[in-house]
Amino acid sequence: MPDAAAVPIEDERPLRKLYRSGEGRLLGGVARGLAGHLGLPVIWVRLIFIGLFTANGLGALLYAAFWFFVPLGVGGVAAQRAAMVTTETAPDGRRRLVARKPDKGQIVALLAMLAVAMVFVGSMDLGGPTKAYLWPTLLVAAGVALVWRQADNARRARWMEVGRKRRTLTIARTAAGVLLVGVGVSGIFVLRGSASDLSAALQAALAVLVGIALLAGPYLVRMTQDLSEERLMRIRAQERAEVAAHVHDSVLHTLTLIQRNADSAGEVRRLARAQERDLRAWLYKPEGTGKEEAEEPDTLAEAVRRNAAEVEDKHGVPIEVVVVGDCPLDERLTAQMQAAREAMVNAAKYGGEGGAVQVFAEVEGETVFVSVRDRGPGFDLDAVPDDRMGVRESIIGRMQRNGGAARLRTVPGGGTEVELEMERTAAT
Amino acid sequence: MSDATEASGPVDPAAGAAEAGAPAARRVKVVLVDDHRMFRTGVQAEIGQTERTGVEVVGEAADVDQAVAVITATRPEVVLLDVHLPGGGGVEVLRRCAPLMADAESPVRFLALSVSDAAEDVIGVIRGGARGYVTKTITGTDLVDSVFRVQEGDAVFSPRLAGFVLDAFASTDAAPVDEDLDRLTQREREVLRLIARGYAYKEIAKQLYISVKTVESHVSAVLRKLQLSNRHELTRWATARRLV
User: Is A298 exposed, middle or buried (0-12, 13-18, 19+ CB in 10 A)?
Assistant: First the structure.
């Protein structure tokens, strides 16, 4: 029943919820958010607010209420303004929102509002004592607005990864807000009574604050705990997803390949070894990526491991690597690595039936020692024809040309060991 | 770590006897601790034929609590211990079995058998008191051999482990003179180097013109030093690698 199936999907639209708009806003984003929510042009909503403002300041009150209680979000960004916010794929693969335009209009709006407020206050004809309270009240309002805007910015920074402004600015803004509120409140107190009452009033205020903290404290603590726990769970889930993705990408694919190649033991072994190495690198490397295959290794340990891995992949013979110490590669060591690689290839080719090839590298002060050992049948160097250059040129000759030494220890039936010794270049 | 000729092919009773030294007369009780049933079954099949190998598997456990209970109940001579276990890992088992290890009359000895050869796992269980460390790629013959070695009180090192230890002590060369007690002797270092190069104990003995027993005592000495002394240098080494 395709029709029946299609209906619930149609209903799966996300719940429409009122948000203040973070983008293209002039003050708190209330008007734009409302406009987006109601599907009206923004200018209409703004005009209505201004209209209401003239009606005894009702608009301002309404606006302030919206500002306080409606969360900031992406909601209500009108379609024609969408170009200002674009999604962009970050290097880590996550999509994030990027704001394109600095909020210049906001400053204009703020100034305009200030001017209107001044005119409004100036034109108001209130009684003497009431008028005296007006300025402190305005100060308090400004301080609160400042701090609330700050909270908005913090939230916006969290979901948009923008607005990572200097911390000092954040602190300065909060401090200014607090100061404004403080001055305003003190002003009210000072106006109410004489200055001598100030300390008593402050004490009372402090007592009230402590009381509120005692009452609300447990809830706040529990809320932050819930929040951090939720965050932890989310991080865990993300990590699990990453592991699952990696296992899927590499391990499952390898297992599929192994199933397909079940008949050829060599291929299965090769796949399993390559997968093991990959998984190990992923699990135990500090960064956990182990993906930058393209770049050349620049330390000895890395070079030995890389060479061993390549030979292992190519010849399907397991190579066990033990590296003691590490140092940067220089010209001589590069030559030594080439010789070692040749030795590994030989060991894998001719000695591979006896088990794993063992590679040991050690940095001992100024000398670097590499041993490549197999447990194959062994051979007699003197019996090798003169035209075969593998051992003589690629290993022994190369080492000697670069000022090192190569020793071959081979017992017929007892395996072969190639020992390579090289001095590091003096300048380190 | 044993000869290649023995490592390949099926378990040969005669070779096993030669390696382990008269298994018909000697039996060793072993407990398997691993959270994968398949792996326990596999090991059991490889080494569990008592009349042939001399190894008698007297118990199995899948997590830390079970392991401690089974080990306490059966008092085996050797425990084959997986490093990664539910309930705290092999290190936790070692910690809770410490009194059994210290028992003078019939000590329980631990041989770590793990798929991981990461430095933190290896050093962790060795410092916890395990007498050896082998990886799960080991052959049946070698494993039997290792079990007997551990039962006799000797240490069993994989080449990789020898490499870690050398690495740990290599960085101390330039350090100001510490007590000689805390250092590896030249001979011990030589032995370790040969182990790291993949030589079997027998081959090392031949090459250095010493007896296999001497090789084993050198290796045991290394293990002792690794566990008890050289505290600050190992700590420094571990901190440098962000292991602790």
Answer: exposed
